[in-house]
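Teaching assistant here, posting this on the class forum so everyone can see the example we discussed in section. The complex has two components, and the goal was to see what a joint structure prediction looks like when all of them are supplied at once.
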Amino acid sequence: MKSAVIVFPGSNCDRDMAVALEKITGQKPLMVWHQEYDFDKVDFIALPGGFSYGDYLRCGAMSARSHIMKEVIKRAEAGVPTFGVCNGFQILTETGLLPGALMRNAGLHFVCKDVKMTVENADTMFTSAYAAGEEITIPVAHHDGNYFADTETLDRLEGEGQVAFKYNEDINGAQRRIAGITNAKGNVLGMMPHPERMIEPALGGSDGRKLFESVMNRLG
Amino acid sequence: MKARIHVTLKNGVLDPQGKAIEHALGNMGFDGVEAARQGKYIELDLKSTDRASAEKEVDEMCRKLLANTVIENYSIELE
């Protein structure tokens, strides 16, 4: 599986993502700087966590309008599996590839800890290696992970199986405890927790590994 | 021409920062505050001298970048 990690000024989980992808897929991912206009054909695009552009204006707002994102949006719309973690999730909502918005945590605190969450839909290309309803532990580290969408959108997300993960407990005020969602087509996933930081026991657990394995299985 | 843009959270969108401001003011003894909402103010110096085209352009800027219309409203003043 050939993958690419998009790097913005202020990304800080790009190397974690690269290490996880290399260990699991056996291939070094392409690291693509935000000022590029194009990059080699890949099977998987990752938008890493961090504080791109210093979170200026709104988290992910600047990155979503960068040169490279025009290409990422084009490929995501064409069906390339695209995965955004934390700031990457914020960027995906800012581009409109995913619905809703990520707001300041309801408790106003930066939340940095391992959280338990549940796999709500194990039929997506990102979650098929998990069991439906499986409880997994993945770390979060964010200030703006409070997922918001209007009631109609939330009902649609839940009804169509687009909610991939939910927190077991409310940690940030997110509507319906949503931790991660996919687009309607199912090839774009955004989530606040960091599966790339949980890929082997030495890191405290390996619950994040199956997410990458799911995509590999799908791509064959 | 100057454009003054206010970006505010939509009604019904929880504003934890506004709530914190409201509580802090209460703690300081300002007990006349019923609610606080926090927003953004953006000022642009425009090249344009034509009001109608400027208004159209700034509106597009708001929709495409300055506001996230999922959660925010905006208002524009030109002078």
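For the discussion questions: Chain A has a mean pLDDT of 97. The interface with chain B takes residues 57-58, 61, 65, 93-94, 99-101, 103-108, 146, 148-149, 173 of chain A (CB under 8 Å). Think about how each of these relates to the inputs above.
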